[in-house]
Amino acid sequence: MRFLVVGAGALGGYFGGRLLEAGRDVTFLLRPRRATQIEKTGLVIRSGMGNLLLPNPPHVLANEINAPYDVVIVGCKAYDLAETMESFAPAVGPDTVILPLLNGMRHIDALASRFGDERVLGGLCMISATLDDEGAVLHLADLQVLAFGERDGTPSTRVDAIAAQFAGAKFDARATPDILQEMWEKWIFIATVASLTSSMRAPIGDIVSAGGQDVALALFEECSAIAAHNGFAPRAGAIERGRTMVTAAGSSITASMYKDIVRGAAIEADHIVGDLLGRAATGSRVGARTGPDSDVSAPSALRTAYVHLKTYEAQRGRLAVSATAAK
Fold it and tell me: Residue 60: pLDDT above 90?
């Protein structure tokens, strides 16, 4: 089975590197700058689960793809998805399976529209990783989960085949018939933490110490209500874990969106928070079951957080224009 891993950043680099380590047929689709870097340093993974150096991992640029792959693993930022889809389009043949690992659900709509609904699996990953200044993948905690499955929950030979390829690699791979439910439950948590820590510019522990538990729980309940409206009410275990984590005293947890804001980078405001708000009014998109006829009560805490994020984007855009004009 031939895998094309789109990108070799923290996510693609880690899971793709572990698959290569296990002897699987993996090629990375890279941009020229990352390709030059990896040709110089190799793909480096530093992890408590075992370090890895791959001196010359197979890789291609977009214009070098000359045949379809069996599986395309996509883990880009949501705001890069349109460009990313064009870059790997030549790798998609009649039997290609696309396994996306982005958060939220809007990317499923986009991928299904571009390549066909039948080619797109559901998928998610849970990992804390980043790239250092030299391009090495730093795995920051033991968590390294990759879950996937058919979006309609049915067993399939292609999911079984992917599971067999993932077996033996140094990460926790899990095929599941409940992948959409799990994606929604992760989305609830990610949207809550992104909205909370980005708006407050602080980790959860600091927000709790300032008396913000009620704000955290209001956000979590609003996100949960939207999921329920779309037919994916979080299960009891997910509710308990979520409430506990967003109100944990002393917690150092922040969202990656918060980290992006701190360094002045682009953020996934529309994909993670805006799209969730949009689904408060309808359950008609891909990745939603039929919801109740009435809309969810106005999610005021989530909307406030979304306005904050969009204000940051507007300010960042003005700064970029000013910097360009000053050159």
Answer: yes
pLDDT of residue 59: 98
For 325, other C-beta atoms within 10 Å of its C-beta total 7
Q: Looking at the annotation, which residues are catalytic?
A: 186
Tell me the CA end-to-end span of the chain in Å, nearest whole number. Answer: 49
* pLDDT (mean) for 21-29: 98
Buried b (16+ CB within 10 A) or exposed e, 203-220: bbbbbbeeebbebbbbbb
Q: What's the CA gap between 149 and 139, in Å, rounded?
A: 25
**Collapsing DSSP states into helix, strand and coil, what is residue 53?**
strand
Domain enclosing residue 297, as ranges:
181-326
Residue 148: closest CA among 114, 178, 169, 126 = 178
Looking at the structure, do residues 168 and 231 belong to the same domain, yes or no?
Answer: no
- Read out DSSP for 75-124? ---GGGHHHHHHHHGGG--TT-EEEE--SSSHHHHHHHHHH-GGGB-EEE
